[in-house]
Design goal:
Helix content is about 35%, strand content about 25%. The chain is of the alpha+beta class.
């Protein structure tokens, strides 16, 4: 008796249909440096564009969205996690001052449903356009028997460039510098295993609207990650910034410490911002200790900028002009590379 790839659970035609559905949205992320590869086996980028740099450093970052994809699956909403993926990757590049140039993605699923894959990749492409980063290629893999038909996971990698003598980081940070907080749009894409545990062990449901929120919990939890890349680059070009810290897994203190030299501390004021209601919902219903909240979630601070003291006001004005809520979060003082939340 003969068999086939399709009988084994892999539908090549569905994959080809998904590619056709996503083409228009992917095209919107195109940059002038992208070169077409007729075979489609590789994404091409014209590196002669780097000739304008004195000493270009290539930066690369890769990430996923973690178990947030499970909530997207349960709610049948697929484009927002693509947006999350781009934010997680390109904002890591922005921390060192690198401009994101191009990105590739990887989608693994139990069964290729063309419209679902097109939504996922379309969300990635839309967010790439927002970040100024070309989506030059990717892969959709069907894993029947390994993943359930409605299960999927996503990952991506991006490459950026920064001038060597404009590289941002801990070595530029000095006592007296000002620490700015840039507001998150919500939970972003970290801590969702704890979120799912709280959902599984309490009375919280995705379709309910807790008193603290003005929309259903599921909609709140799928709020896309704020993408800061172009805002960070604008700040970097203004000359105000010493260093950035992308607040992801590990929380505010854990990530900011990575951007401090061994001779300075950051002293931050908790009273400088109001923690968004979604975090209080999770803390209260899950009975999560404050220390656990601190190290798991961003608590409303998605990116931190350390700026020269005489440029802080201008930096805040620049961010306000770009519709990024920001405030003075604290200051840099002599120390040993530690973050203090007071």
């Amino acid at each position: 008796m003969s068999t086939s790839y399709e009988a084994a659970g892999v539908d090549i035609a569905a994959g080809e249909r998904a590619v056709e559905l996503m083409k228009a949205r992917v095209a919107r992320s195109r940059r002038p440096e992208v070169v077409d590869d007729a075979s489609g086996f590789a994404g091409l980028f014209d590196a002669s564009a780097l000739a304008r740099y004195r000493r270009p450093l290539l930066a690369t970052s890769t990430d996923g969205v973690g178990t947030k994809v499970d909530l997207a699956r349960r709610l049948g909403v697929y484009d927002t996690v693509g947006h999350d993926l781009v934010g997680m990757v390109v904002d890591d590049l922005a921390v060192c001052g690198a401009e994101p140039l191009f990105m590739t993605d990887y989608v693994a699923c139990g069964k290729v449903v063309p419209e679902r894959i097109a939504d996922i990749v379309g969300g990635i492409a839309d967010a790439c356009a927002l970040a100024g980063c070309a989506l030059v290629g990717g892969e959709t893999a069907e894993h029947p028997g390994l993943l359930e038909p409605d299960e999927f996971d996503i990952a991506g990698a991006a490459t950026g460039v920064v001038e060597a003598d404009e590289l941002l980081g801990p070595d530029r940070v000095r006592p007296g510098d000002v620490v700015l907080g840039l507001a998150s749009s919500g939970i972003h894409a970290n801590g969702y295993s704890l979120v799912r545990h709280i959902l599984a062990t309490t009375g919280l449901t995705l379709d309910a609207t807790p008193a603290e929120l003005d929309r259903p919990l599921g909609q709140e939890l799928l709020t896309p990650t704020r993408i800061y890349a172009q805002d960070c680059l604008a700040l970097a070009r203004s000359g105000a910034v010493r260093a950035f810290a992308h607040i992801t897994g590990g929380g505010l203190a854990g990530n900011l410490a990575r951007s401090l030299p061994g001779t300075a501390d950051a002293v931050l004021s908790r009273s400088s911002w109001t923690v968004p209601p979604i975090f209080e919902v999770l803390r209260a219903h899950g009975r999560v200790p404050d220390a656990e909240m601190d190290k798991t979630f961003n608590l409303g601070v998605g990116m931190v900028a350390i700026v020269a003291p005489d440029r802080a006001d201008a930096a805040l004005e620049l961010l306000a002009g770009r519709d990024v809520p920001a405030w003075v979060l604290g200051e840099i003082v002599p120390g040993t590379g530690t973050v203090h939340l007071s």
